[in-house]
Amino acid sequence: MKNMRFSKLLIPDTKIYLWMMTLFVGIIAYYNTWIGSIGILVLMYFAYYNWKTQHNRQEMWTKYIEDLSSNIDSVTRYAVLDMPIPLVVIEFDGSISWYNATFSEMIDTKDLLEKNIEDVIGGFKINNILKEKEDMVVEVTIEDRHYKVLYNIVKTSTNDEKYMIMLYWIEITNFQNLKVKYNEEKPVVILIEVDNYDDVLKNTEEANRPLVIAEIDRRISLWGSRMNAAIQKYQKDKYITFVENQYVELLETKKFTILDEIREIQVGNQIPITLSIGVGANGKSPAQLEEYARAAMDLALGRGGDQAVVKKIKTLNFYGGKTKAVEKRTKVKARVIAHALRQLIDQSKEVVIMGHNFPDMDSLGAALGVYRAVRNREREAYIVLDHVNEAIKNLYDHIKEYEEYKFINCEDLLSGVSKDTLVVVVDTHRPNFTQCPKVLEIAERVVLIDHHRRGAEFIDQAVLTYLEPYASSTCELIAEILQYMDDKINIEKIEAEALLAGITVDTKNFSFKTGVRTFEAASWLRRAGADTTNVRQLFQDDLDTFVSIADVVKNAKSIGNNIALSVCSKDMENTSLVAAQAADELLNIRGITASFVLGIRNNQEIIISGRSLGDINVQLILEKLGGGGHLSVAGAQLKDKTIEEAKAVLEKAIEEYFEEGEES
To answer: Rounded distance, CA 304 to CA 308, Å?
Structure first.
């Protein structure tokens, strides 16, 4: 600060010189009056000259400022009146106060004063401008032109608190057209696989096999040529296709008609040919596009095939999938999974087995089967079970008679899980549907065994996944795995009965989704000691539950398309059990091919049980509501809705299902 003050003394200043001259003249006048008088005259002249110079400089500076202000005002008026971009000034209520000629030309309309801008420009909302954040851009389309709207709020008067909005319209039509063209021409990877290639050829006479293969290739090539696609067959039953993004929207609009075209092939084949299609779009690189396509293909195969899955970053869209999954006759995969599971168990200190929330016979039975596999390998095993519902009460009470089985709740599990813990998830592949979702975030090794058609939500971190939608139940898969875990049958009677009960409940007494391997698994369990009479007793209901089921069936109504709909009363106990069994009973009514039963569980969420005879895919319907399951057995849970609202969204989903079927 001192240096700054000192430096100011060195700046030339006429006043300082005058004061110095006055001092010297005074000293001279003291010694010599005549010379002092001359010095005073000279000093007066210099003082006058200094005043005159300062005055002229002040006038020049003032004139310069005034001229500059005048020029700025002129430039401002020119910029506003003759601005090359459209400009309009509006009140906060939307009325137009002023606009330039460019704005009038933009909308090709005159006499706009006092009109509301929302009426003049359709689709424009003032609230979008006022609520705009820094990272948001308001865009408006006028006919075929695109504009980005910038705004500025100005105060019109210093005395009156009045504000107006100035809107600047920046045309971005060329940018938008370029953006659209870029999005249309972005590459997309499509993977195609013939689901039942080997089965089709095995059931086709040898002379017709080349015709079948050629017809598949021809139809896929023709389908690709309509999109200017590049198709490469890299295995006997697999194809990879590269196409522009603009054709994906067309494929989705037409619901991937290639699925139906391939299924209609009849050149000597005795069974229909089905495809699985995985589409990867909107990836940042070719590698990511292939990753998306393979993830979509895994989903399509995991859901039973005969469908297309489109993956766009985090969005998944499903098309097709209205036919039953083809049963695989070979047990090679079951043997491979059994050996891999045995190694994982041997490498673990303890194993935790976990089913889904509100467990049923299939979930608990499968857990007991895995429990036996772990104990046979001399490792500690625990079954996660937070609460017992009516669906498993009979089986659970029977199990509790044996002291061998160890159950654990979610809270105790989270405090004791370690890196050496192996978590086996059965009868569900959705993390949020498990008994303890948080343990999946902690555990380093997770095994997944399930028979449901794969949905968008999935346990991705599993080190071993056995997802077979063709299987009747998870208990069927576990029964096959147990046969390959050890050379000899080593399973307790209660465990065999629990596994058989799981198969029985999911197949509705071997009448739904039952294949050759289902009966083979059941016969193996029968040889292992399962008593069918004891299994039947596990499904016995008390009188109140039976009456509740009868009431639900009695109150059912037909909603068209051979579908029955009913609702459980609010004061009904065991809602989950009643809804499931009532939906099963409704299928016994002549003319009903699908049924849905709604109920309130725990006074807070709506549950929906869907059943069908196979003609209607209840899984696709309930997937629209966030649920899932199988073609003939599915369920969903809705929160923050009343029964009436749930019925409305369910009926809308059913309507959309049939509309999609008609379009395809």
So the answer is: 11
**Other beta carbons within 10 Å of 611:** 29
CA separation for the pair 540, 543 (Å, rounded): 10
559 in Cβ contact with 593 (< 8 Å):
no
Whether the CB-CB separation of 586 and 595 falls below 8 Å is answered with yes
Q: Which two tokens stand for residue 543?
A: 């009188």
DSSP run (H or E) holding 425: strand 421-426
Q: Which amino acid type is present at position 138?
A: V
Per-residue pLDDT tens for 528-542? Answer: 999 999 999 988 888
Nearest one of 648, 622, 624 to 636, comparing CA atoms: 622
Closest CA to 593 of 611, 581, 578: 611
Q: What is the DSSP letter of 625?
A: T
| 3-state class (DSSP) for residue 576 | helix
Q: Which residue has the tokens 């509006």?
A: 90
- Are 587 and 613 contacting, i.e. CB atoms less than 8 angstroms apart? yes
pLDDT in tens, 460-484: 888 999 988 888 899 999 999 999 8
Rounded distance between C-alpha atoms, residue 99 and residue 115, angstroms? 11
> Rounded to whole angstroms, how far apart are CA atoms 609 and 508?
14
Ordered DSSP codes for 148-196: EEEEEEEE--SSS--EEEEEEEEE-HHHHHHHHHHHHHSEEEEEEEETT
**What is the C-alpha to C-alpha distance for residues 437 and 84, in angstroms, rounded to an integer?**
60
Residue 111 region, left (φ>0) first, then alpha (ψ -120 to 50), else beta? left
Of 540 and 175, the structure prediction assigns the larger pLDDT to 175
Q: What share of the chain is helix, strand, coil (3-state, %, to 5)?
A: 45, 20, 35
Separation CA 229–CA 70 (nearest Å): 66
Q: What distance separates the 2 farthest-apart alpha carbons in the chain?
A: 147
Q: For the CA atoms of the chain, what is the radius of gyration?
A: 40
Q: At what angle do helices 332-346 and 474-485 cross, to 10 degrees?
A: 70
Question: Which pLDDT value is given to residue 664?
Answer: 43
- Cβ–Cβ under 8 Å, residues 311 and 279: yes
Q: Residue 279: what are its φ and ψ, rounded to 5°?
A: -115, 125
**Please, which residues have CB within 8 angstroms of residue 469's CB and are 6 or more apart in sequence?**
302, 303, 304, 325, 451, 452, 453, 454, 630
Task: Please say if the pLDDT value at position 515 is more than 80.
Answer: yes
How far is 392 from 365, CA to CA, in rounded Å? 9
Span 322-334, pLDDT tens digits: 665 655 656 778 8
- Cβ count within 10 A of residue 84: 8
Chain centroid to CA 183:
21
Crossing angle of the two packed helices 493-507 and 474-485, in degrees rounded to 10: 140
Q: Is residue 399 a contact partner of residue 405, using CB atoms and an 8 Å limit?
A: yes
Hey, how many other C-beta atoms are within 10 angstroms of the C-beta on 459?
A: 21
Q: What angle do the packed helices 474-485 and 516-527 form, to 10 degrees?
A: 60
Tokens linked to 596: 């849905």
**Torsion sign (Cα): 122, 125, 129, 132:** negative
What tokens appear for 576 in the block?
A: 């989950």
Share of the chain above pLDDT 70, in %: 90
Distance of alpha carbon 436 from the chain centroid: 22
Q: Are strands 307-312 and 275-281 parallel, antiparallel or unpaired?
A: parallel
Strand 628-629 with 633-639, pairing? antiparallel
Residue 608 CA to residue 627 CA, distance in Å, equals 9
